[in-house]
Amino acid sequence: MIKLANDRLLRALLREPVDVTPVWMMRQAGRYLPEYRATRERAGDFMTLCRTPDLACEVTLQPLARYELDAAILFSDILTIPDAMGLGLYFSAGEGPRFERTVRSRRDVEQLGIPDPENELRYVMDAVRTIRRELDGRVPLIGFSGSPWTLATYMVEGGSSKDFGTVKGMMFDQPQLMHQLLDILARTVTDYLNAQIEAGAQAVMIFDTWGGALSPRDYREFSLRYMEQIVAGLSRENEGRRVPVILFTKGGSGWLEAMADTGCDALGIDWTIDLADARKRIGDRVVLQGNMDPCTLYASPERIRTEVEAVLTSFGHGEGHVFNLGHGIHQHINPDHVRVFIDSVHELSARFHQ
What is the number of alpha carbons within 13 Å of residue 16 lying toward its C-beta? Predict the structure, then answer.
């Protein structure tokens, strides 16, 4: 077993005793940090930053130099997979991610290949290996991927969307074609996450950013079933330790029971449900991760501490909680407020574990 100086996160994800509640943040390596912006400028563009393992490692470690975080999360992007499938990912100012080619016909789907993680996505695996080496056992490293449904929305729409009209139109009019696309993506994500685990990721997370745009019936058919397929295909042990799997569906609080049935170890929870209600519904079946509103970090330090305590109180005493924001940290957050947040979690949570 690989020795970690701080394995609080991994123990919490397995419902083992911890001294304080572990905490990390979605997008903790990002634009709110001036050192990230400096590295991004040095790289020249976002994709060069992602595709250069040494730079991806540098920005992954930056928040750990500032804060007492309990995990590092790989710096990458969920859209590396469709880019590796040949869709031509690029970023336009003010528009976010875009693709040169879309996937909208049977021919488009049939032309998709499953990329080799150690070939087309080698830069991601090299980043994982570099980060693990530089972490040197300090904290665990989390790997991640987008969910098949979330990846499909970008691939069909050609980028971000407000109403998902094109991808939902395909889902309703050509459900078999949509299932064919989602199956390809599920197999790709499984290979991709297994390669991250083999390269050194000690926990993995599946981000279903747009699952909440679906109806309950469509969510189960077009999103959840493919995440369940991925969970069933993942390597759950490496380096003598279990590799926990976290599922996160933004806007998915109505489906927590179904998500817990996938075989995952933890559920990411956004801020639209109280942790007390989520815990009552789920019990001890899976760990809960979350769920402070990211906008809380715009508030005063005193209010941040109050909100941290409110989230801890909502979950209550005992094991099975990883503290996080309900979604990614916002770009214009004051880094000093993040320190208050992280330190408050550790300081105020000790009494919930006695």
Answer: 9
Q: Is 77 a catalytic site residue?
A: yes
pLDDT of residue 120: 97
Sketch the domain layout of the chain as residue ranges: 8-353
Q: Which CATH class is domain 8-353?
A: alpha beta
* Per-residue confidence (pLDDT) for residue 3, from 0 to 100: 86
154 tagged catalytic: yes
286 burial (CB, 10 Å; 0-12 / 13-18 / 19+) is: buried
Q: What is the pLDDT of residue 297?
A: 98
Residue 236 annotated as catalytic: no
* Residues 296-337: tens digit of each pLDDT: 999 999 999 999 999 999 999 999 999 999 999 999 999 999
For residue 350, the Cα-to-chain-centroid distance in whole angstroms is 26
Residues of the chain whose pLDDT is less than 50? none
φ and ψ of 123, to 5 deg: -60, -30
Active site residue 40: yes
Question: Does the annotation count 27 as an active-site position?
Answer: yes
Question: Of these residues, 32, 36, 67, 154, which one is catalytic?
Answer: 154
Residues 6+ apart with CB under 8 A from 26: 73, 268, 324, 325, 327, 328, 329
| Phi, psi (deg, nearest 5) at residue 26 | -65, 135
Contact 91, 97 (CB under 8 A): yes
Q: What is the rounded radius of gyration, in angstroms, for the C-alpha atoms of the chain?
A: 19
Q: What is the pLDDT of residues 46-83, one digit of tens each?
A: 999 999 999 999 999 999 999 999 999 999 999 999 99
Residues contacting 19, CB < 8 A, separation 6+: 8, 350, 353
pLDDT at site 1 = 65
- Per-residue model confidence (pLDDT) at position 91: 84
Can you give the three-state secondary structure of 144-211, one letter per residue?
EEECHHHHHHHHHHCECCCCCHHHHHHHHHCHHHHHHHHHHHHHHHHHHHHHHHHHCCCEEEEEECCH
Spot the catalytic one: 77, 108, 183, 293: 77
